[in-house]
Amino acid sequence: MGWVAGPILVLLCAWVTLFTSLLLADCFAVEGKIHRTYSGCVGAVFGRTGFHASAWLQHASLILYALAYTIVAAQSLQTVARSVCEQHNTSSCFDAFWQWALVFGGIQLVLGQLPSLHYFAGISIFGAAMSLTYSATSIGVAAGNLGKLPYGSGTVGGLQLGSRVDKAFDVLNSLGAILFSFNISLILIEVQDTLRHPANPPHGGSDADVVAQARGPIRKMRKAIYISMALMSTIYLAVACFGFACLGAATPYNILTGLTLRLAWRSAFVALITFVACLMPFFQVITGLVGAISFAPITAIFPIELWIRSKRPHRRVRWGLRTLSALAVLVTLATTAGSLQRLVTSWSSFTLFGSN
């Protein structure tokens, strides 16, 4: 995308996500009841059809997110393996993508048998620490090599790959990847429900009672959204800018390149995700596709409509918000097309269980 469009689009996506996430947080209490899930909030306003539509979209997005993170985990393990092999001049190296995808899938298989993350609360802290470590390492390595590599320091117009059509599809796919990175709406209500708040009032309680009970979690969640979006935007911009300044045209997609029932279903899910990751190890393309598909409905349309129907703002405000929803739909359509085109192109030159 280059030095101009890249940072602008990162900041624009951050602002849209921040704005719609604040609207969604305000809808924690809808129609006189506190809701524990995203689909529950949507169902309270849009009825049974809205509930099922949002639930399907939410869970489909979560499955695609699992696929994307399996791909990047296997790629990162593959990069470490190749680095070790190069340092020791090893001729035979355990560095095939599919091999490390199976290793990571095996780890998920074990962790997937836990009843819930409440039984292993440290996993969330560990995951956040790994993300920060990845980002800090990327920034540090890139900053330490500024001006030392023969790839240039990036360009205003971004990478020039193939024809103008290819360039356009790459830009759209990259925009989808940015949207993927900022999609916090997906589980925002579920996270908000973990904040301490009183139970719903007994039958007959007034809407004012519910609003009063929800005020504390809403205030805390809004503060958390501001802080998290500021941190995410700063880190993403730093990784992108330092990486592009260091590597220029050579910048890669990955900067560092019942118990029985639970056992059966979770094992099958992990096996399926791992197998699909082996079939499509294209992290940039998958993240772009996931971000594109989920952006309009999950991040924009449902939160905006929830807020409009529960808060009943002035007509001009409704018009402005729905214009934003319409723009989000156009972005989703364009970025989905770009990501699908890149997926077809990447898959055409891929060999299953090959070195790739």
TrEMBL record:
Any one GO biological process: amino acid transport
This one is known as Amino acid transporter transmembrane domain-containing protein
- What GO cellular component entries does it have? membrane
List the keywords (alphabetical). Amino-acid transport, Membrane, Signal, Transmembrane, Transmembrane helix, Transport
Q: What is its main location?
A: membrane
This chain's source organism reads: Chlorella ohadii
Q: Where are the transmembrane segments?
A: 53-72, 93-111, 117-147, 168-189, 225-251, 263-283, 289-308, 320-340
Please list which residues make up the signal peptide: 1-25
Q: Is the keyword Disulfide bond assigned to this protein?
A: no
The Amino acid transporter transmembrane domain sits at 1-259, 260-334
Q: Which cellular compartments is it found in?
A: Membrane
Q: Which PANTHER family match?
A: OS05G0424000 PROTEIN-RELATED
